Amino acid sequence: QVHLVESGGGLVQAGGSLRLSCAASGSIFSIRTMGWYRQAPGKQREFVAAIARGGGTNYKDSVKDRFTISRDNAKNTVYLQMNSLKPEDTAVYYCNSVVRGEFPLGSWGQGTQVTVST
Questions:
Q1: pLDDT 10s digits, 66-99
Q2: Using DSSP, how many helices (H) and how many strands (E) does the chain show?
Q3: Rounded Cα–Cα distance for residues 61 and 48 (Å)
Q4: Residues 6 or more apart whose Cβ sits within 8 Å of residue 54
Protein backbone atom coordinates (compact mmCIF):
# COMPACT_ATOMS: atom_id res chain seq x y z
CA GLN A 1 0.00 0.00 0.00
CA VAL A 2 1.31 3.44 -0.97
CA HIS A 3 0.41 6.44 1.18
CA LEU A 4 0.15 9.68 -0.81
CA VAL A 5 0.34 13.31 0.30
CA GLU A 6 -0.34 16.06 -2.24
CA SER A 7 0.73 19.69 -1.82
CA GLY A 8 1.37 22.88 -3.75
CA GLY A 9 -2.12 23.98 -4.66
CA GLY A 10 -3.44 27.49 -4.23
CA LEU A 11 -5.20 30.44 -5.78
CA VAL A 12 -3.70 31.82 -8.99
CA GLN A 13 -4.85 34.15 -11.74
CA ALA A 14 -5.51 32.85 -15.22
CA GLY A 15 -2.25 32.53 -17.10
CA GLY A 16 -0.30 31.82 -13.95
CA SER A 17 1.63 28.75 -12.84
CA LEU A 18 1.69 26.29 -9.98
CA ARG A 19 3.81 23.27 -9.15
CA LEU A 20 2.16 20.38 -7.37
CA SER A 21 4.04 17.73 -5.44
CA CYS A 22 3.01 14.26 -4.34
CA ALA A 23 5.09 12.51 -1.72
CA ALA A 24 4.61 8.77 -1.57
CA SER A 25 5.59 6.29 1.09
CA GLY A 26 6.68 2.81 0.20
CA SER A 27 9.63 1.39 -1.66
CA ILE A 28 7.47 0.30 -4.58
CA PHE A 29 7.04 3.89 -5.74
CA SER A 30 9.98 3.63 -8.10
CA ILE A 31 8.49 0.71 -10.00
CA ARG A 32 5.03 2.13 -10.50
CA THR A 33 3.56 4.42 -13.07
CA MET A 34 2.31 7.46 -11.18
CA GLY A 35 -0.22 10.01 -12.23
CA TRP A 36 -2.28 13.05 -11.45
CA TYR A 37 -6.06 13.28 -11.46
CA ARG A 38 -8.45 16.12 -10.73
CA GLN A 39 -12.05 16.60 -9.66
CA ALA A 40 -13.91 19.81 -10.32
CA PRO A 41 -17.05 20.70 -8.36
CA GLY A 42 -20.00 18.65 -9.55
CA LYS A 43 -17.88 16.57 -11.91
CA GLN A 44 -16.30 13.15 -11.86
CA ARG A 45 -12.62 12.72 -11.14
CA GLU A 46 -10.61 12.68 -14.36
CA PHE A 47 -7.16 11.68 -15.52
CA VAL A 48 -4.66 14.50 -16.10
CA ALA A 49 -1.19 13.04 -16.62
CA ALA A 50 0.93 9.96 -15.96
CA ILE A 51 4.62 9.12 -15.89
CA ALA A 52 6.08 5.64 -16.11
CA ARG A 53 9.04 4.52 -14.06
CA GLY A 54 11.27 5.00 -17.11
CA GLY A 55 10.01 8.53 -17.72
CA GLY A 56 7.47 7.99 -20.48
CA THR A 57 4.51 10.35 -20.13
CA ASN A 58 0.85 10.52 -21.07
CA TYR A 59 -1.43 13.59 -20.86
CA LYS A 60 -5.05 14.56 -21.12
CA ASP A 61 -5.37 16.42 -24.41
CA SER A 62 -6.50 19.71 -22.87
CA VAL A 63 -3.36 20.01 -20.71
CA LYS A 64 -0.79 18.52 -23.06
CA ASP A 65 0.97 21.77 -24.01
CA ARG A 66 0.63 23.41 -20.59
CA PHE A 67 1.34 20.79 -17.92
CA THR A 68 4.50 18.75 -17.34
CA ILE A 69 4.66 15.69 -15.12
CA SER A 70 7.97 14.55 -13.64
CA ARG A 71 9.23 12.28 -10.89
CA ASP A 72 12.16 11.90 -8.54
CA ASN A 73 12.40 8.23 -7.59
CA ALA A 74 15.07 8.93 -4.98
CA LYS A 75 12.62 11.20 -3.16
CA ASN A 76 9.51 9.10 -3.87
CA THR A 77 7.91 12.23 -5.28
CA VAL A 78 5.97 13.05 -8.42
CA TYR A 79 5.42 16.61 -9.62
CA LEU A 80 3.00 18.43 -11.87
CA GLN A 81 4.17 21.74 -13.30
CA MET A 82 1.13 23.66 -14.49
CA ASN A 83 1.58 26.69 -16.73
CA SER A 84 -0.88 28.95 -18.55
CA LEU A 85 -3.57 27.97 -16.10
CA LYS A 86 -7.21 28.47 -17.05
CA PRO A 87 -10.32 28.79 -14.90
CA GLU A 88 -11.43 25.37 -16.16
CA ASP A 89 -8.35 23.88 -14.48
CA THR A 90 -9.92 24.67 -11.10
CA ALA A 91 -10.27 21.40 -9.19
CA VAL A 92 -8.91 19.30 -6.37
CA TYR A 93 -5.82 17.53 -7.70
CA TYR A 94 -4.87 14.04 -6.57
CA CYS A 95 -2.03 11.68 -7.35
CA ASN A 96 -2.19 7.91 -7.51
CA SER A 97 -0.61 4.87 -9.03
CA VAL A 98 -1.72 4.33 -12.62
CA VAL A 99 -2.55 1.21 -14.60
CA ARG A 100 -3.25 0.82 -18.31
CA GLY A 101 -2.05 4.32 -19.01
CA GLU A 102 -4.70 6.34 -17.21
CA PHE A 103 -6.69 4.33 -14.63
CA PRO A 104 -6.07 4.87 -10.91
CA LEU A 105 -4.99 2.07 -8.60
CA GLY A 106 -5.09 2.29 -4.83
CA SER A 107 -6.32 4.65 -2.20
CA TRP A 108 -6.59 8.40 -2.66
CA GLY A 109 -4.85 11.05 -0.61
CA GLN A 110 -6.49 14.24 0.59
CA GLY A 111 -5.73 16.12 -2.62
CA THR A 112 -4.69 19.73 -3.07
CA GLN A 113 -7.03 22.52 -4.18
CA VAL A 114 -6.17 24.53 -7.28
CA THR A 115 -8.28 27.60 -7.96
CA VAL A 116 -7.75 29.69 -11.08
CA SER A 117 -9.43 33.08 -11.13
CA THR A 118 -10.32 35.15 -14.17
A1: 999 999 988 999 999 999 999 999 999 999 999 9
A2: 0, 11
A3: 9
A4: none
